[in-house]
Each structure stands twice: as structure tokens, then as C-alpha cells.
């Protein structure tokens, strides 16, 4: 075991232990007493159900993570990466097709191993707590659609990255960075109109009081409202959500049909005000710029380590290749990825507070608070998460902190 292997192994162990500790503290922080703030929306039975949901999902997450780690370590130390490489190289497909096949087989293998966990999560856990609306047909179709999109969109991008690092010695990382950046921007533009409708129906919000109230609010904050859509979220789950996506003429605000069913018009306008707040505060642009910068750093470091023999020796590889280097570097890069992920989540929580403040000041705080309470109840959210768990995992602040911040103004 050389230094590369030790770093990767330590990273895997630290990541697993940190999340295990966070899960333990999070379960310990479950408070059997309902926070007074939620007396008007929760009853004792629903609150108890939300705590049991957190317990079940947490324990299942630990089991899933442990299984994935064990499979990776067994495959690694049994020489699985080199074994698979020898098989695929024997097919003599050429450098790029060999790389695509190798990475594709690994992704397919991981997907097959994860399938039982996905099935159990959807049809047992989510079903038990009354969330699941996914039929076996929808489940299978989603997998097939995801696979097709991965091949059609991800395949050419991966082929391009492999080609850059295979045939261009100098500045290959710049070409790869440029290609990924362009790909990301294009996806942002086409996703709302071309990709998302593959999985869900987007119907324009019908004329009526709600749409008029939304129009009035949008006019009051000078927001050009291109489209308000209702998404058939109830096709898969009873959970509620709303989101803002796209740029320019393709930008959309989408409301889950379950959200509309369970909230008043005023609460829905407040939710939309929050989403518009993200746009007005340029959070989407800021996140994209940060992501692009992070990608550039990753490709620069990849160009440094891609030809390091020690990286391949750590995985018992007999031959050096770009495609295996991409995989191994991804594991080596994990500590940096972990740190940047935590930083991005800290920023994300800050942005959520800012969007809440925008919604509260440009509309009204009361329906925003009422909407957050209902969302937490409908989704059986954990009302008392441990701060360490929040630090590692939450992209949104805990709902109690959001409500206190809104009321404080």
C-alpha cells in the first residue's frame, strides 16, 4: 500500500466515520416533546411518525453506506479494477471505446448492486410512511429513461474528456474544463423544456385567483414571469416541493401538485416569493460560477496526477490508462470534494435565509411561516436535527431556525 492508497483509504474511513457519528448524534437529538412553534400544525401521532421516519431513514442510510464501502474495498483489494481492465482491453475496442466501456460497466455494476436498496427505499420505507405513489411501471421507466439520458448526454461528454487527456498532452485540462462548462450551461437552458418533461408532466397553472395573485406579486418585484407550471409530483410521492430552474426565456417556476393541494393561495405566493428571491439575489448564478471554478480546479489537479504511476499501483493496475486514472483520481480528490461540499452547503443555507428574508419583506412573513410549517409536516421533516448533522448534510437551515429568522425580521 503506497501513499496514494493510504490517502484514499483514510478518506473513505474518515468520511464513513464522520457520517456515522453525525447520524448517531442526530438520532440522539430527536426530542419527544413537540416544539411549541408547531402546536398548531402537528398532533402527537404525526410528530411521533416524523421521528420514526427519521430513525428508519437514518438506519437504512447507514446500512446502505456500509454495504457500498465493503463492496468497494473487496473489489479494490481483490484486484477487481485490473481484472476488469484486462477483460475489456482484450476486446480491442480502441482507446476511447475501451474507456467508455470500462466506466460504463462499473456504473452498471454499481447500479445493479444499488437496485435492491432503491426498491426497498421506495416500496417499503416510503410506502410504510404513506409517501410512495410510484408504481413498478413508473419505477422501471424512470430507470430506463435515466440510463438513456446517461448514454445520450453523458456518453459524448465522457468521450470528449477521454479524448482530450489521451491525445492532447498540454492544456488538456483546459479543453476538458471548457467542454464541461459548455455542457453545464447548455443543460441549464434545455433541461426545463427538453429533459425534465421526460420524467414529469409540466402543465401551465390554470387561470384563476392563484395565478392572478402570483402575477400581482411578480409585478410588484419587477420579475418577468415567463412560466408558472404545475408538476405531477404526486405521480411518485405525496411529498411537496417547489423549485426554480432555467435561464432567460426557458426559466420556469414549478409547483408540485401536492403543494397546491395542501396550501392556501397566500402560502403558495410566499413559496414562490422565496424562489424568486433566489433569482433576485443571483444565488443560481453564484452557485454555477462556484461549481464551474471547482470543476476547473479538479481538472487541473487531474492533469497533475493522471500520469502518476503510484496512483495506479495503489489499485494493482498493470497498465496505465486515462479512463482508470479518472476513476482513481476521483477517489483521491474526495477530501477536497468533501471540504468544498461542506463550504457549498454553508453558502446554500445562507442563501436560503436570504431568500426567506426577501419573501418576507416583499410579501408577508406570516404565510411564509405557515407554509414552512405545513411543508415540514407533509414531508415528516426532523424538527430537531443535531448541529453537526446539519453542518455535514443540510443544504437548507433547519425549519425552526428559518422560522425564528423570519419572525425576527
Please give a structural write-up.
- This is M48 family metallopeptidase.
- The chain crosses the membrane at residues 6-25, 60-79, 99-125, 146-168, 174-195, 288-306, 326-347.
- Residues 27-201 form the CAAX prenyl protease 1 N-terminal domain.
- The chain is mostly helical.
- It has two domains: 3-201 and 280-408, no CATH class; 202-277, Metalloproteases ("zincins"), catalytic domain (Zincin-like), CATH 3.30.2010.
- The protein has 16 helices and four strands.
- It has helices spanning 3-28, 44-77, 80-89, 95-128, 136-167, 172-199, 209-220, 257-262, 265-280, 283-305, 309-313, 322-332, 334-362, 365-378, 387-393, 399-408; strands spanning 202-204, 228-231, 242-245, 252-256.
- The chain has a four-stranded mixed sheet with strand order 1-2-4-3, sandwiched between helices.
- A hairpin with a 6-residue loop joins strand 3 and strand 4.
- The chain is globular and about 65 Å long.
- The chain starts with a helix and ends with a helix.
- The model has no long low-confidence stretch (mean pLDDT 93).
Amino acid at each position: 500500500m503506497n501513499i496514494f492508497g493510504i490517502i484514499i483509504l483514510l478518506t473513505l474511513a474518515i468520511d464513513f466515520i464522520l457520517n456515522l457519528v453525525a447520524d448517531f448524534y442526530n438520532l440522539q437529538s430527536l426530542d419527544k416533546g413537540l416544539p411549541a412553534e408547531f402546536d398548531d400544525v402537528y398532533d402527537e401521532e404525526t410528530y411521533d411518525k416524523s421521528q420514526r421516519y427519521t430513525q428508519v431513514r437514518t438506519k437504512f442510510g447507514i446500512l446502505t453506506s456500509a454495504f457500498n464501502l465493503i463492496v468497494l474495498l473487496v473489489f479494490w483489494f481483490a484486484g477487481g479494477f485490473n481484472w476488469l481492465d484486462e477483460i475489456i482491453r482484450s476486446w480491442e475496442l480502441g482507446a476511447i471505446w475501451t474507456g467508455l466501456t470500462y466506466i460504463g460497466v462499473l456504473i452498471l455494476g454499481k447500479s445493479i448492486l444499488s437496485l435492491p436498496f432503491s426498491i426497498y427505499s421506495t416500496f417499503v420505507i416510503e410506502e410504510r410512511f404513506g409517501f410512495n405513489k410510484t408504481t413498478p411501471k413508473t419505477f422501471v421507466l424512470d430507470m430506463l429513461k435515466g440510463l438513456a439520458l446517461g448514454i445520450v448526454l453523458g456518453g459524448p461528454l465522457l468521450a470528449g474528456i477521454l479524448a482530450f487527456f489521451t491525445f492532447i498532452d498540454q492544456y488538456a485540462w483546459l479543453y476538458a474544463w471548457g467542454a464541461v462548462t459548455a455542457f453545464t450551461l447548455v443543460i441549464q437552458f434545455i433541461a426545463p423544456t427538453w429533459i425534465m418533461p421526460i420524467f414529469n408532466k409540466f402543465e401551465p397553472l390554470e387561470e384563476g385567483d392563484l395565478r392572478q395573485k402570483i402575477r400581482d406579486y411578480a409585478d410588484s418585484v419587477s420579475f418577468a414571469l415567463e412560466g408558472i407550471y404545475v408538476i405531477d409530483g404526486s405521480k411518485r410521492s405525496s411529498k411537496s416541493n417547489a423549485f426554480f430552474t432555467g435561464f432567460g426565456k426557458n426559466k420556469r417556476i414549478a409547483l408540485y401538485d401536492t403543494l397546491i393541494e395542501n396550501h392556501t393561495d397566500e402560502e403558495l405566493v410566499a413559496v414562490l416569493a422565496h424562489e424568486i428571491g433566489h433569482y433576485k439575489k443571483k444565488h443560481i448564478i453564484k452557485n454555477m460560477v462556484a461549481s464551474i471554478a471547482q470543476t476547473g480546479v479538479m481538472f487541473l489537479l487531474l492533469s497533475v496526477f493522471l500520469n502518476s504511476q503510484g496512483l495506479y499501483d495503489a489499485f494493482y493496475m498493470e497498465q496505465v490508462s486515462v479512463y482508470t486514472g479518472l476513476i482513481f483520481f476521483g477517489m483521491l480528490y474526495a477530501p477536497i470534494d468533501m471540504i468544498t461540499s461542506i463550504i457549498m452547503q454553508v453558502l446554500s443555507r445562507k442563501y436560503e435565509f436570504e431568500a426567506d428574508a426577501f419573501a418576507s419583506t416583499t410579501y408577508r412573513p406570516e404565510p411564509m411561516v405557515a407554509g414552512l410549517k405545513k411543508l415540514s409536516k407533509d414531508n415528516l421533516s426532523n424538527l430537531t436535527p443535531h448541529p453537526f448533522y446539519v453542518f455535514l448534510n443540510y443544504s437548507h437551515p433547519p425549519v425552526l431556525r428559518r422560522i425564528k429568522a423570519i419572525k425576527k425580521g
